[in-house]
Amino acid sequence: MRIRCASACSVIRAASTLLVLLLILASPALASEPKFPPLTGRVVDDAGVLNSYTVGELTLMLADHERATGEQVVVVTLKSLQGYTIEDYGYQLGRHWGIGQKGVNNGALLIVAPKEHKVRIEVGYGLEGTLTDAISATIIQNYILPSFKLGDFNAGILAGTTSILQVLGGNSIISPPPPPQPLTFWQGPWEIVVIWGLLFFGAWGYFLVLWFRHRNDPHDWTTYGGTGWSSGSYGGSSGGGGGGGFSGGGGSFGGGGASGSW
Fold first, then answer.
1. 128-139 in b/e burial notation, b at 16+ Cβ within 10 A?
2. Which of 29, 100, 171, 254 has its CA 20 to 30 A from that of 181?
């Protein structure tokens, strides 16, 4: 009887030890759930790589597309993938934000992780038949990555978003991008030199005229007193495309889409 009890106690202790080990190994995975940036608008530049012009253009395009079709497309740049693959992080982000209409699942995400050099087009269930994995991969390779490799996130994201909306609008075949054109004189660095040179000599000529006129008639300054130079006359702000109450509609994602790296 004692032998049986000792054997049973040994089995229980071994099982308990194994259970503790499994809990210890599983605890980091349970504790390291991804953190998602807040959905502040149709463009969430969490990595801070987009300028205000790009954010404004993207926001207008995406808002117009949603009004016309009901499909929600969101562009997001991330500070970090937090150790996750962009595929794993992407579909979880889409579900967390609920991009697309509930039951229709007509949402899509363009996700850029500059730190990890990763990009992904995440496609909701309802758009997988239109924005297929193959088409998503083509958009990434032909339109997004060439600019990313040059360090131009604004151009790559604008081109990629435009292509996504074209496909969703019915253009299922994406034509290859036009070949790069050689720089002309006015597109190269000489353009800047010439413009600054003209401004410099023009300004000096203007002040020389004033000086000579003042030399002949000191009271002649009043003639030029109403030019109205003032600080802030060239002020002006460019819209950044704020959220405007934007929110997801409860759509879901299952991992459709494509990824790329540079």
1. bebbbeebbebb
2. 171
Sequence-ordered list of residues with C-beta below 8 angstroms from that of 261, at least 6 positions apart, any chain: 116, 117, 118, 119
Q: How far is CA 107 from the centre of its chain?
A: 16
- The rounded distance, in Å, linking the Cα atoms of 58 and 146 is 19
For residue 77, give the 3-state DSSP assignment: strand
pLDDT beyond 60 at 259? yes
- Angle at 162 (CA atoms; ends 78, 64), nearest 5 degrees: 95
pLDDT (average), residues 111-134: 97
Give this prediction's pTM. Answer: 0.66
Q: Could you identify the residue written with the tokens 């000599």?
A: 201
Does residue 83 contact residue 32 with C-beta atoms inside 8 Å? Answer: yes
Nearest Cα neighbor of 110 from 30, 44, 51, 63 is 44
> Which long-range CB contacts under 8 A does 68-71 form with residues at least 24 apart?
69/106, 69/168, 69/169, 70/101, 70/104, 70/106, 71/100, 71/106, 71/107, 71/108, 71/127, 71/168
The pairing of strands 118-124 and 72-77 is unpaired
Mean pLDDT of the chain: 79
CA within 13 Å, CB half, 25: 6
Return d(Cα 157, Cα 17) in angstroms, integer.
52
Pair 99, 68: CB distance under 8 Å? no
